[in-house]
Design brief:
With 137 residues, the protein is mainly α. It has helices at residues 16-25, 31-52, 56-61, 118-129; strands at residues 5-6, 12-13, 88-89, 100-102, 112-114. Strand 1 (5-6) and strand 2 (12-13) form a beta hairpin. The radius of gyration is 33 Å and the shape is rod-shaped.
């Protein structure tokens, strides 16, 4: 903290106390008093952030959730699906009830049968990616 430089006006310039004296007397604070006040406010806000943990903005973004997120369960899709017939070529008859045929215009991926839900989403994504000119896997 800066040393006090009391003047004729009775203000302790260069101190936080001097900043308050400026305000109470209706005099704009001098640069030295503003610098000390700004530094003290930065330290105060840093202490508050440490005490609170996540900021209010972060808490609002996460709907109040704090800590490390929990990973969702693994869902087998596509090649890893245990259902027989999932991922079979679309030229074959429907392998099982409720199977969905996925076909995308202009795709290099042939039409295939998939389970409804995650497997179907996987098939659609794969077919869409394979429509890209030479960029698809």
């Amino acid at each position: 903290m800066a040393t006090s430089t009391a003047t004729v006006d009775g203000i302790d310039h260069g101190t936080h106390r001097g900043y308050g004296q400026h305000l109470r007397r209706g005099i704009p604070p001098c640069q030295g008093c503003r610098d000390v006040h700004s530094e003290r406010e930065r330290e105060r806000k840093a202490r508050l952030r440490e005490a609170k943990g996540a900021s209010a903005t972060q808490r609002a973004w996460n709907q109040g959730a704090v800590g490390t997120p929990v990973a969702g369960r693994d869902v087998p899709v596509g090649r890893d699906c245990p259902v027989s017939g999932c991922g079979a070529l679309g030229t074959e008859p429907r392998p099982a009830a409720r199977m969905v045929r996925v076909e995308w215009p202009g795709s290099r991926e042939p039409a295939r049968w998939y389970c409804p839900g995650p497997c179907k989403a996987y098939g659609v994504a794969l077919a869409e990616v394979r429509t890209l000119g030479g960029l698809g896997a």
